[in-house]
Queue: 2 jobs
Job 1
Amino acid sequence: MAPRRDAARVLLRIAFRNLLASPVRTGILGAIVLVGALIVVVGSSVLDSIDRGMRTSIQGSLGGHLQVYEARSEGALELYGGLRGESLLEPIEDFSKVKAVLEQVPNVKQVVPMGIDQAMVATGNAFDLALERLRGDVRRLEAGEDGPELRRDYAAHAAHVRRMVQLLRDEIAQAREISDPEGREAAERKSEWEALQRAATDAFWRDLDRDRYGSLEFLENRVAPLAMDTAFTFLRYVGTDVDAFFRAFPLAEVVKGERIPTGQRGVLVGKQYAEEWLKLKNARRLDQIKDARDRRGKRIADDEELQRWVRENRAGIREILLQLDPIRADALAQELRPALGAPAAEPLEALLGRLFAATDESFDGQYRIFYDVVAPKLRLYQIDVGDTITIKAPSKSGYFSSVNVKVYGFLQFKGIERSGIAGMMSVLDLMSFRDLYGYLTAEKAAEIRALQKSMGAREIDRERAEAELFGAADGALVGEARVAEIDEGALVKRREEERASAADLAAHVYSQEELEHGVALNAALILDDPRLLRRTEGDVRKAIADAGLGLKVVDWQEAAGLVGQFVTLLRVVLFTAVVIFFAIALVIINNAMVMATLQRVKEIGTMRAIGTQRRFVVTMLLVEIATVGLVFGLAGAALGAGVVWGIRVAGGIPAVTDLLYFVFSGPALFPRLGALAVGGSLAVVLLVAILSALYPALIAMRVTPVEAMATED
Amino acid sequence: MSIVSVEHVSKDYMLGKTVVPALRDVSLAVGKGEFLSIAGPSGSGKTTLLNLVGCVDTPTAGRVIVAGQDTARLSERALTELRLRTIGFIFQSFNLVSVLSVFQNVEFPLLLQGGQTRKERAERVLALLDAVGIAEHARHRPSELSGGQRQRVAIARALVTRPALVLADEPTANLDSETGGNIIDLMKEMNRRDGTTFIFSTHDPKVMAHASALVRIEDGRIASREDLDAARLAGGR
Ligand SMILES: Nc1ncnc2c1ncn2[C@@H]1O[C@H](COP(=O)(O)OP(=O)(O)OP(=O)(O)O)[C@@H](O)[C@H]1O
Ligand SMILES: [Mg+2]
């Protein structure tokens, strides 16, 4: 042992001193190693954190730990949507069977039924809103109420509707100029135009009081649909057992309103969806400007996008004015003048112009004024909590099916509130989902036929009850008779009627059995111990095979589709970058070491001649490079740790896009230094260093003692 | 009893496709304690012969026996061991390890051998540095020394393991004649004191004059061998 130790000592000594003897070479090799270690440490720390973030986001929002779906499905399950829209899944006909089997698998805590799809939603519009108010006044008047206040409201609301009819007529007049008068739908267009012309006449409004219901129905059935045409939007939803959903996904929370009551129909609209698609455009833009200023450090003065938003907000004032009847408009103007420090006579339009003409200095104040003074007088969201909305979708059977559901609240996922990926998702009750999906098993079809019979009977009862509710049963019936005339050929069912059946369905409480005994498209499995995911995945597969359920099992990452592949993609990118970097490093280190070895041939020959064994020489060279690897690798890892720490202190890596928000599981990524990252980086740089020294070591080994004799100079 | 025995050794070098015969059927026996000089014109084969004797090269034909061992039968490792324990080298261009100090250069073969305490090594190294007269430079790097000083270090290194045989290929060729003379004196003294066998090549007649025996080599063949001590004795004084 002793001789070895002595030899080892002198070997280390020579190796170190050789390093010190050529500081430039050592410095260059060291820098390469250091940067390599730094990249690996920072890269893998960031990646691991992204991985963690994504795990949180996916598992906590929709994915759970495992997902199952019908094995015969054409497409793969993509929870957050794919490039070609929604996944093409065959239905699981009876979810209860799946649940019964899978719940028995060890480590499976919960099985949550799901059906993800998109549907059209009528958003309603300012016209509807104005009509709604007018209708309220008309009902009260027809019920015999009266008084100066009601009269004033009535006049104001009528004026509001009239103003909107005029605007609508102007708009359609423009459209008529460019449309083909001989077209296929020319007759229909012509009749629409006539209705609009009529509603815009002085005579129509003069006669309003003579036949309030009749005029109202005319406006609702003949005029309102013209304003309705563009007013729908697409809603992405997951139909699910709502209680189970909230138990399974801890990130899900209701931000406004309440949860859908157990067993009832209803929808929770995605908060982010509401913000982006349903919110008053001006309010949305104010939010965006605020966000850009506060979170991204942008300034209106030098950012084109912000300037555009400010411009659009000034142009968007009309949309706000449209929402206000004369009384509200007046009240708003009165409040705005002192708030904005405007002259006493300044009209509302000018006041709003002042409010939205934002600069960096005035913005925060104006933002506050908008939300404190203006917003309470407006309908901020086209669909809001408490509304009942109509959702339409093409069903499996080929027809459009539609359901009316109450909006119980806005839904968001904690931590990833701002991400559109999960935030666009709304939650719909399972029964409504099934109605929209429209897939009927033979057994179910029969059941529903029976149900429809009894429902039809009840609906008629409803109508009567409603007429009574309005008080003037006779008047209402007369009104209805009249409506029947006007209504001829109209495709839409009468609104009141729709509301009635919706109210009926909405009140119905379905049993857990009804919920589970039916179609679902996929099911999320929640595990007791997520660490055992792989084993449980195997167990689930086996249980499915044993029970002959014919389901496919995927893990949460796969189920997330494109989004889930994001981290894999990043990994590939980082890995490729690291491989390229180290390939280059390998070549450089190899070259440098070959040169160093060739320079030392005589010295090595001398050592060999005076009795140094080959392995000693080889070891010496490897120790030399390994020292570089270790010392600079450690320095690089330390520097990497510093960078990671620095990123954390500086507030993390900001999530500048939706996708990043989701994968970071929050507004910023706070990378965490992993022991594995540090150890891994050291291992990698050491490996690369030693690999790149193998060829030089071979050269050194081949140096013969004779070469000591070479007399150069 | 000879420490080196070269028996019918030939050595051919290949220069491209032509065979260059460097040694042709050389036989030579060197006895213990000899201070043998090999002389000959340039290209005559002196270095080649020394390399074969020093086990850093192998003959094309014939046998080289060093300290009783047939070098052809030894493995690479065993040959290295033989060089480490039995042979000391003094090179024409000194060949010190540049990153080690004078002391460490001399200590190097001892460390390779192992088996001694630090104190034993230090005593041995310092004694030798003292003997070659550069004890005060123990901590210096070779680059800080003159040619003569470096060769002294090389001699100390060659002798530190008390080898039976020291080989030196033109040890004074890179030195001025006065320094060269000193170096030969030093080697001679070591030879006398410890009975170490020296074989060295040289062109310098003054150096040859110190030898106990002179082998002349010409065109790869031994031309003559004279025992100078005997001659000197015979010449009478
Ligand atoms: N590696 C080699 N390859 C080819 N030929 C060689 C090699 N080494 C030596 N020779 C040839 O062998 C012959 C003997 O060379 P050697 O170096 O032994 O002569 P030398 O007596 O030492 O000469 P010098 O006095 O110039 O050092 C010469 O002809 C030389 O050219
Ligand atoms: Mg020579």
Job 2
Amino acid sequence: MPPDSAASEAERVLRICSACMYCDGLCPVFPALAGRHAYPANDLNYLANLCHNCRGCWYACQYAPPHPFAVNLPTALAALRRESYAETVWPRLLGRAFRRPALGAVLIVAAALAAMIAIVAASGSPAALWRVRAGPGSFYAAVPWSVMAGLAGVSIAWAIVSMAASTWRFWRAIAPKVPGRALWLAAGPALRDIVTLRHLGGGGPGCNDEDIRFSKRRRLFHHLMAGGVALDVAATLAAAACQDVFSWPPPYPLASLPVGLGAVGGVGVVVGAAGLLALEARADRAPSERGESVLNVAFLVALEVVALSGFALFALRDTAVMGPLLVVHIGTVVGLFVGLPAMKSLHAPFRAAALLRAAAEQKASEGKEGARAARVLSE
Amino acid sequence: MPATADPWDVLVIGGGLAGLCAAISARKLGASVRLIESAPSESRGGNARHARNFRAAHGAPAWHSPGVYTADEFLSELRKASAPQFDEGLAQELIADTTGLASWLMDCGVRLQDPRVGVVPFSRRTAFLLGGGKAMLNALYQTAAGIGVVVGYGAEAVGLADRPDGGWSVEVAGAERQRIAARCVVVAAGGPGADPEWLRAHFGPAADGYSIRGCAYSNGHAMQMLIEAGARTVGDPTTCHIVAVDARGPRFDGGIVTRITAIPYGLVVDRDAARVDIESHDVGRTHYARWGPRIARCPGGVAFLILDAGALERAAPTALPAISADTIAALAGTLGLDADALARALEAFNAERSGRRHPLSGPPFFAFPMRPGLTFVHYGVAVDERMRVRRRDGGTVATLFAAGMIMAANILRSGYLAGLGLALAAVSGRRAGEAAARHAAG
Ligand SMILES: Cc1cc2nc3c(=O)[nH]c(=O)nc-3n(C[C@H](O)[C@H](O)[C@H](O)COP(=O)(O)OP(=O)(O)OC[C@H]3O[C@@H](n4cnc5c(N)ncnc54)[C@H](O)[C@@H]3O)c2cc1C
Ligand code: SF4
Ligand code: SF4
């Protein structure tokens, strides 16, 4: 869908919803529509990121096709959400990866391959990779520390700078006009919503993960995946500490902090991402937006490849394939970080920003006369 | 035409709220139950799709319904709303049944909304469905299928014949024409509102301009079938609940969002740009229900609401954006009205300065074209306290039941109470289903 039509379709549908409001108990998008007459672009982008795509309002909608109003809020907001990433991402060139989501996958694969080639080139003779033996320092015998740290450092720095800039641009665009105090008070509740994925509980029975039945599987798998990523970040930090503070070079034994955290986190990522992929594959297509599905799948597959290559490296690190596996693992890690700012990963900070705004507006309106004045139609 | 050999204990005609409640109740008592719904599965469920909350008496606060709402209070409000000749004994029984309705629905998987969530008002009298009526219908269809009710979509009952054993043979049109035999039949096919010909016959040619707010499938043909089989009617086929709706909305199924609620903030004119008014300017919850009949009496059955930016801002959001123009003449042009006449009407309106009303100072100006939107007709078939259909020549039919909007006129002869439609459909459906299952069991 071209950008303007994503916004105008979302506005058309949201107007119907604002007059209807039958879904107001399903998620925070609807209370944010109460009494609303105007839909400026920034507010539309905010609403799009406030939607967690639970699809509840598709199955509940009295105006879904074949009704002539043809309301499909989940896909309208998903298309707009993708457009909001495309508009806001920094550097702007990356916007293309959201308008044509397959491009993002191409970028990661290209970056991963480039990184692998660079590593092989930097490690002297490729044949030597097959001859490295186990033991302390064996990783650096295969791939020099400077190459490994350099590539990882640069790609991670790129991901952090780009995603921070994109997030800042998004926040600047959607920041609510509330007193600083409300924002401060909102940080706690917003953080709780983010960490617990409260809204994915659907207020009890869960979301319409696959079809008209409710399920809590998406919440579970998302927790596993996100928790796994967090543990893997912790494992990397632990490894850096072992090496630089305690002068203990890798590889580390299973019972060490870096490998222990990494292994548990890796299992979380492998199982969580696989579960989310399975849900994506089985899900009813009607409330799914194709472009968003491509973004989801590309990101989840990238996570799987990185995690599985990490496990392979751990399992086979005492064998002759350790060297090549190390190259593949580092290459995919570098590819993931290079691609991160142009992938579904933007969802995390953007949704966090949207939840913060929702919580801040909630705080700012608390206690005010008429905070619940929004009227609901009923007969 | 194939004939199913073994009769079902209970055949339910109509898969709206009343039909689903009848089917589930009958099945829970062990009856074999078949339900036929004339709509395809995407459009199933009748008018409950457009409903939000149901009225229920409760003697103590519940998490979904604060405060207390006694059956006596319910009855006295019904007495005020309905014309005097309604069946008060039946009303009392059905109101008593609403006491357990919320928990019965929740047992069937229906989710209610916590009034602290979202933006629903705190309401003593009514409980709100989480996600609205369609979410409720989805849950009930799932429950019905889960306990073994056999549901057929796109299956319209078109004929009713009695069988020598006292049961019925129902002719069904649809993908497959067939006859279904049943010991008892529950007709829960809704009221007669959605048949354009029937409406024209009772409301005159102006009815062609009405929007039907509910679904096209609740067309009263099954009610006609009952009348032809000897059922006694109740109510008045020319009394109905009618509101002001956006004329740009669809002919059928516009539901709740096309209702125009901003009338108290602006000026209403007819197609000659002459001012239209009703006696009081009540911003209360039902003013639109008094505007419906008023617009129906306007020439051509249309009227236009004129607003300025301030008035639009004060009004509730609308599904379709207002028509706008920079001058009143341009607005008149867009609406096809006489520009001078509209300007004069506006001037007179602004000069009036009555009460709380703001003058329309514009530009820009905004407008909503309006037509009457029919919600339901106060007409149906007479039933006894077990929802057995009453005969014109006295007595009741032991094996024929009617539930929901098709029998609502027994207790609602005029007017309306918010949340009454669903409550009646559910409790009468349950009664009919249980009575039918008991009768079939012998
Ligand atoms: C716009 C609107 C808003 C409303 N809002 C509310 C509200 O907020 N609260 C409230 O309490 N009430 C509300 N109501 C009223 C309420 O929706 C109805 O009273 C209630 O749904 C009636 O249920 P029912 O099952 O008796 O009939 P219907 O809902 O009319 O269902 C009849 C069913 O029978 C099927 N059918 C018809 N003929 C045949 C046939 N020959 N063979 C097979 N199947 C057939 C139809 O397809 C339909 O599914 C509203 C009504 C409308 C129109
Ligand atoms: S029922 Fe449909 S139109 Fe109404 S709020 Fe839900 S999604 Fe929007
Ligand atoms: S899909 Fe879920 S989160 Fe998104 S708007 Fe609908 S109900 Fe809200």
